[in-house]
From TrEMBL:
Keywords: Dioxygenase, Lyase, Oxidoreductase
Protein name: Catechol 2,3-dioxygenase-like lactoylglutathione lyase family enzyme
Record-linked CDD domains: BphC5-RrK37_N_like
Molecular function terms from GO: dioxygenase activity; lyase activity
Origin: domain of life: Bacteria
Coiled-coil blocks: none
Keyword set includes Oxidoreductase: yes
Organism: Streptomyces zagrosensis
Domain VOC intervals: 16-131, 149-267
Gene3D superfamilies per the UniProt record, alphabetical: 2,3-Dihydroxybiphenyl 1,2-Dioxygenase, domain 1
Ion transport recorded as keyword: no
Amino acid sequence: MLRQPGGTLASTHLTHLRHVDLAVPEHDRQLAFYTDIWGLTRTVGDTGISFLAAQGSPEQFVVRLRKAPEKRLDLLAFGIAAREDVDALAERLAADEVRLVSEPDVLSTPGGGYGFRFFDVDGRTVEVSSNVTPREHRRIEAAESIPVRLSHVVLNSPDIAVTTAWYQQHLGFRLTDTMHSPQDGDLMHFLRINPQHHSLAFSKGPHTSLHHASFELRGLDEYLRASGRAIRSGATKLWGPGRHKAGDNAFTYFLDPHGNTVEYTTEMEQVDEDTWHPHIYDASQADVTDQWGTANPWDEQVAKESINDPDHGCFIAPPL
């Protein structure tokens, strides 16, 4: 257990990011993008709902698509070590007056497991689960340009200091690095729950929304091949290819059919917990956003698309 600012005990047993669930008006169009272009595999589905896996990941699915009248982030899901940790976290969140969406129970999604849902400080639905049956997966081979796994998710928040503190206090996230502007203050906080530089980040924005979801490729060659496939498909390339300084990962950002930003990435930095000290990076320096200097400039259009539409699903639990 780790004592966080404010004196609250936070679990250190969150293990990894499981999946990101999206609601969209045009389910079939979105499904075609994520399978035919992006490289995910539909494993389970019915009319208006699909579970999409990454071939290299033991997770049953890394994206869930649900048909809905308007787009929203349905939920963000994380793994936790054991069933007793699920119960302990639910009990502690309830004691801290965090609004629970559901009590711990057996899950009905692919792979089952045991988990519960709750609202974070901005009203997003979060799921934590354990004992999910691993999916049969395989090694992604050289030159195979499909995602290995879901890498990380970045979320827009009007007050990233408050949101970051909430995730540190209640879920045990650690601050890895900060992106800072001399004019506008902190722009992004990168948070980790394992040695990966970040599984989650919060970006300063005018409203709560999805900033981007990122998918890991096998290596640089596979990342470039995947980026090229998406470009040739006619998908809107937003930014990249390039290499960030925070996380040291390669990036190319695209828009999916509903205007959500999705990223191909690879070679994310791994953190040594015993020696790591958070950096504060100056976002006004060109080599901070792109070390290679190969990406198109970060401009107002890229910023606008990254802000995304306001999420009207805050403090409204998804029906599934």
